[in-house]
Recover the amino acids of this structure.
């Protein structure tokens, strides 16, 4: 569908906002937070190449990860040392490459890409099965994967943005991650999970299933506001279904 032909009814989202004690504004994408989106990695995910490649089981890990800041890098490096060959397929290769993290020509700190995907992604032929080595390591240690993984990896498909002028308050916006957030390459993806009904099949809504992630991103007070708003209006207000459930799959 060309941009000029977009049916804006099919792109509508409902929002709720509040101002905190500091005068900052918090905005939440109710349409996504009340949806039943879930990660379908290994369960129908078509990947993010320009053609469907579900057999690769790479999800959105094909192009590696960009780190948010030095703290993000330090945190992940601390947990990398806890991985071994039983849970990380490319551990030996990482050593030969002078580590799994490097600075690219653009000056960005990123994870290396080997054999067509992130160096931390175990492939289907790995004895322990496919998936993020950091995610697996955390589960084996009885810890939260979000504490081990790069920020962008555990936040997806949530995105927190902030905007302000030099003297005014800040507006924080929590919404779903969209294709354009990837830059020019995002529009070339054959498939993106929040565009397709395939990924909207969880029994619980996003604000519950991703509670830990949301609290980490916005804090407990902001989370309690949006969760409370949703709970108070449940059964009395009909939430707008997610656009992916109001239009044909983007395939």
């Amino acid at each position: 569908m060309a941009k000029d032909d977009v049916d804006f009814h099919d792109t509508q989202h409902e929002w709720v906002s509040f101002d905190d004690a500091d005068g900052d504004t918090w905005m939440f994408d109710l349409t996504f937070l009340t949806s039943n989106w879930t990660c379908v990695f290994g369960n129908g995910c078509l990947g993010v190449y320009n053609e469907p490649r579900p057999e690769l089981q790479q999800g959105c890990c094909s192009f590696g990860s960009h780190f948010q800041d030095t703290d993000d890098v330090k945190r992940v490096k601390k947990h990398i040392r806890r991985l071994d060959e039983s849970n990380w397929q490319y551990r030996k290769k990482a050593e030969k490459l002078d580590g799994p993290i490097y600075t690219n020509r653009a000056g960005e700190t990123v994870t290396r890409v080997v054999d067509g995907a992130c160096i931390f992604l175990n492939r289907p032929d790995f004895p322990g099965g496919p998936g993020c080595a950091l995610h697996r390591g955390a589960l084996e240690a009885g810890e939260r994967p979000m504490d081990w993984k790069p920020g962008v990896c555990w936040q997806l498909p949530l995105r927190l943005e902030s905007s302000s002028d030099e003297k005014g308050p800040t507006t924080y916006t929590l919404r779903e991650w969209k294709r354009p957030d990837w830059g020019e390459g995002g529009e070339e993806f054959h498939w993106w999970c929040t565009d397709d009904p395939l990924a909207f099949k969880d029994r619980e809504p996003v604000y519950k299933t991703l509670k830990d992630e949301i609290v980490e991103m916005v804090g407990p007070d902001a989370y309690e506001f949006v969760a409370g708003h949703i709970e108070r209006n449940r059964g009395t207000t009909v939430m707008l279904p997610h656009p992916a459930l109001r239009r044909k799959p983007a395939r």
